[in-house]
């Protein structure tokens, strides 16, 4: 377990994402300085799927904001494709925890919004959007609106809406947490299929350890706040993966048990800290 598998295709390229000795501090409403990330280091190779797990409130979402360019580190450096971040990067796609669809637009219009914003001709954008809706199994729903879709359907629209822009880097902040277990498993299969086609570099934030093991090439375990990297696990489970099947394999169960023992210590530390503060 934990064995690193080198990707020779990208070995001479710089990582897709690097956080180097990053710290991030905020000023609270009372004027107190709060450190969310401290001496944080992370590397995501090109085409690699990385999951991030840690206690509630430890700075997982803050990490994503630093990669998007929406936030800047208080110390340290964040790099994309070997270079510094300069504002919002069009190579980065983001899938949110909450629905990010325009409720006044139908499914087709939501899906083609990105290409239109980037200057694509309307007819070409519509054709491309229909291709992506077919990929996620929603061709029959292009005229439906957000309120007419199930939670799983809305997530599939979000995936089409994101992948249609051809992101080289994909950031996902607990995208499936609100779904039931069965729908979540279906979404895992859809995501892995789309990712296998495009091979974007992924950071996937989740509280679900089984989800992390099922999807990722590598898992970062973060400490209780202020967060730093406690440990890194390389998930040596062959691809392609059928998520509904591998959950019962001994290797999968062993990864979950091992990582949970590591993570549980931080969850307990975080819980004690929150109760003491209360």
Shape: globular
Beta percentage is: 15-25%
List the total number of helices: 9
Main beta sheet: strand number and arrangement?
Answer: 6 strands, mixed
Low-confidence stretches: 1-9
What strand line-up does the widest sheet have?
A: 6-7-8-3-9-10
User: Could you say which structural class the secondary elements and strand pairing correspond to?
Assistant: alpha/beta
SSE arrangement, N to C:
EEEHEEEHHHHEHEHEEHH
Portion in helices: 25-40%
Through-space gap between termini: 39 Å
Provide the gyration radius in Å: 19 Å
Number of strands: 10
Mean pLDDT: 89
Produce the secondary structure layout.
Blueprint: E1 17-27, E2 33-44, E3 49-53, H1 60-68, E4 75-80, E5 83-84, E6 92-95, H2 107-111, H3 113-117, H4 122-135, H5 151-163, E7 169-173, H6 181-198, E8 201-205, H7 209-215, E9 218-222, E10 229-234, H8 243-246, H9 250-277
Parallel strand pairs: 3-8, 3-9, 6-7, 7-8
Antiparallel strand pairs: 1-2, 1-4, 4-5, 9-10
Care to give the gist of this entry?
With 278 residues, the protein is of the alpha/beta class. It is 37% helix and 22% strand.
What does this structure look like?
The protein is 37% helix and 22% strand. With 278 residues, the protein is α/β, with parallel strands linked by helices. The strands form two sheets. It has a six-stranded mixed β-sheet, sandwiched between helices. Strands 2-1-4-5 form a four-stranded antiparallel β-sheet. Strand 1 and strand 2 (33-44) form a beta hairpin. The radius of gyration is 19 Å and the shape is globular.
